[in-house]
Design brief:
alpha/beta, eight-stranded mixed sheet, 8 strands, globular
């Protein structure tokens, strides 16, 4: 038998190098005693130590790269942290008189109700007294504020049609102090037709608000700082009532092309209201909503709106946010549902801008 054949019988080809090393170690140990075994163990520990140090170095390098301040995620986290520190717990200035703002856009799905309830909640959280008047038959603002609005509840319908006092229908928001809501019920769906035959049909909401403000003053209640009127997605008599009752208009604009198409028609209707029914009405605020910074379209729409309305457009942008969409299903605003979310921070910024104007 040759020496190569003998070696092949001692170490089969399918055995690993580790097995071969173990067999060799066993042979050496048998000849040289336990000292050699201890030396081999020392060598193995040294090798393991080198491997551990190398692995740890790679892991540390990987973590440094993941949390590098220049990375997009870290930059966004740092920006949001600064925004939270600047906004949370901040007290906003009270206006010299009650500001009545109609939130309107005849296009549906642009964020009118979401904007109304979240800015109202943000202002109330900052210590201001805020009333939301829901004149949309869907009653979504009432839902978001946690105020009952089933068919048996006295609502803004009774104020407009049955001459109820606003004080009889206003309810407090259960989640936020100083926030109140005049709810809407399904009865409002027929109010457009019923208003046609009534005297001074365009001014009924305005008179009701004036009476409610006087009632609060006589009762010794704090003055309302803001009143927001959430309109239906149309330009009917309900929206006309809202325009006549307000001194400011806020227009939420979705950052998409279709939202721009209807803006010119809305502005024409506001001009008609200014000319014939309410000369004090002004378009004071335009808020860009559902902004998706990943698309060129959103950036172009935002740039176009800012170019045409440089003084009205808020610097704050409302992003697309799952948290904002989820909050109404829990009968909450995003301000209470997830106050640390990006959507809540954006609405806090928008509310601060409005209060400081």
């Amino acid at each position: 038998m040759t020496s190569s054949e003998a070696a092949s019988q001692r170490i089969p080809p399918f055995m690993s190098l580790g097995s071969a090393r173990s067999d060799a170690s066993a042979g050496i140990g048998a000849r040289n005693g336990t000292a050699t075994k201890n030396q081999l163990k020392s060598v193995d520990k040294t090798n393991d130590l080198h491997v551990s140090r190398e692995t740890a170095g790679k892991a540390s390098s990987s973590l440094d790269n993941d949390f590098d301040d220049s990375s997009p995620i870290a930059s966004q986290l740092a920006s949001e942290t600064k925004r939270r520190e600047r906004l949370f717990g901040r007290k906003l200035p009270r206006p010299a008189r009650t500001r009545i703002m109609t939130v309107a856009n005849q296009k549906g799905g642009v964020g009118k109700t979401t904007t109304t309830v979240n800015i109202a909640a943000a202002l109330a959280s900052a210590g201001l007294h805020v009333l939301v008047i829901d004149i949309d038959p869907q009653g979504n603002a009432s839902t978001a504020l946690g105020v009952p609005h089933h068919a048996d509840i006295d609502s803004i319908y009774d104020v407009l049609i049955n001459d109820f006092s606003m004080a009889d229908v206003v309810a407090s928001c259960p989640d936020i102090d100083n926030l109140y809501c005049a709810p809407a019920t399904i009865h409002l769906a027929g109010a457009e037709i019923e208003l046609v035959s009534l005297v001074a049909r365009e001014q009924r909401l305005r008179r009701a608000i004036d009476e409610y403000v006087k009632h609060r003053e006589q009762a010794g209640e704090p003055r309302l700082d803001f009143i927001f009127i959430d309109c239906p997605p149309s330009l009917g008599l309900l929206t006309v009532n809202a325009f006549c009752a307000a001194n400011e208009v806020m227009i939420p604009i979705q950052c998409e092309y279709y939202a721009l198409e209807g803006l010119s028609q809305l502005l024409k209707n506001i001009e008609m209201i200014q000319k014939h029914l309410n000369s004090d009405l002004v378009v004071s605020t335009i808020l860009l909503t559902m902004y998706d910074g990943r698309t060129n379209l959103a950036a172009h729409v935002a740039a176009d709106v800012r170019q045409h309305f440089p003084n009205q457009v808020l610097q704050a942008l409302i992003p697309r946010s799952v948290r904002i969409s989820e909050a109404p299903s829990y009968q909450q605003t995003v301000m209470t549902y997830d106050p640390s979310s990006t959507g809540a921070l954006s609405y806090l910024e928008a509310a601060a801008e409005i209060a400081e104007r």
